[in-house]
Design brief:
It contains twelve helices and ten strands. 36% of the residues lie in helices and 18% in strands. The chain is α/β, with parallel strands linked by helices. β3, α3 and β4 form a beta-alpha-beta unit. The radius of gyration is 19 Å and the shape is globular. It binds pyridoxal-5'-phosphate. The site of pyridoxal-5'-phosphate has 21 residues, from α2, α3, β7 and α8. Pyridoxal-5'-phosphate (PLP) binds next to α2, α3, β7 and α8.
Length: 294
């Protein structure tokens, strides 16, 4: 498949020099134009299983702005599957960029009311010949694939690994891979998602649950896909200073968290931080034009 290796970019920024911390960004946003960042890694083992089962259609669930939906549509097409997306809510008059893109990649969309969306088992049952991937791609195959993200960096060199968390499958994959001298920090992008820790632990063995990781809940900026001027200004400033585009749903919040943790010295001097850029830049298309400088 047409994926390139994610480049590793070292960051220079005032807050890093001032606090004597070094940081590098693993640019998963660069691996593919559409299947942004972590989504390809999360899908990889599901698609392998679908192929082994001779499935014709790969199906999944998501909202109108789900990066997972468009990534599944594109990855399914590239792997020779049909795709089917169950979308939460009635069909809108104007489709989001995400959904239009999914259709372009051949995904058949099936809109269901918010109430019906909750009963995923019933939906799966009515399309039982499809190969189903859970909402957001959450599951063990996703965590296994996401762990391979770290094969792209000289993992040993770092003391902190930071990544944004939605379902937490990617973070679980990272926790599986970290070494004893390292700490993994996940930044939850939802407000008060207190179930997330258990969700992550469900993908970890007993031993992995004892590893050094922390899930932070203070950087959601009002909730999932919520934003304010401070976040947008920070994303623009980061782009001007480093050339790295961030998205407002995941990586913008996680990168902001990294800065605050370094300024508070929760990440102490002489640390070496690996920030995983999980992609998701297509999400910025839903922002008002002109807000971002990239
Ligand atoms: C989906 C996504 C995440 C979250 O991944 P999970 O495995 O669901 O935690 C993080 N960043 C971006 C850009 C995403 O699209």
């Amino acid at each position: 498949m047409m994926f390139s290796r994610p480049p590793l970019q070292s960051v220079s920024a005032d807050f890093l020099t001032r606090h004597k911390v070094r940081a590098a960004i693993l640019r998963l946003d660069k691996i593919h134009a559409v299947i942004s960042g972590n989504k390809w890694y999360k899908l990889k083992y599901y698609l392998q299983e679908a192929a082994a089962l001779n499935a014709g259609t790969v199906a999944t669930f998501g909202g109108a702005y789900s990066n997972h939906i468009v990534a599944t549509a594109c990855a399914a097409r590239l792997s020779g599957f049909n795709s089917f997306g169950v979308i939460r809510g009635e069909m809108p008059e104007k489709l989001s960029h995400t959904l239009s893109n999914a259709i372009e990649y051949g995904m058949k969309l099936h809109f269901v009311s918010r109430e019906d969306y909750r009963d995923k088992a019933a939906i799966k049952k009515s399309f039982k010949d499809y190969y189903w991937i859970d909402e957001g791609g959450f599951g063990e195959a996703a965590a296994k694939g996401a762990g391979e993200i770290l094969d792209n960096a000289n993992l040993d060199d770092y003391t902190y690994i930071i990544v944004a968390a939605g379902t937490g499958a990617t973070f679980a994959g990272v926790i599986k891979k970290i070494l004893p001298h390292q700490k993994a920090i996940g930044i939850s992008v939802m407000k008060n998602n207190s179930a997330l820790t258990d969700q992550i632990k469900s993908l970890l063995t007993k031993e992995e649950q004892q590893k050094n990781f922390d899930l932070l809940h203070d950087f959601h900026f009002g909730g999932y896909a919520k934003k304010n001027n401070e976040l947008i200004d920070f994303m623009n400033e980061t782009f001007v200073n480093t050339g790295v585009p961030l998205d407002f749903v995941y990586t913008g919040k996680a990168f902001y968290a990294m800065k605050i943790l370094i300024e508070k010295e929760a990440i102490p001097a002489n640390s070496k931080v690996l920030f995983i850029h999980t992609g998701g830049l297509q999400g910025n298309l839903s922002l008002q034009e002109g807000l971002l400088k990239f």
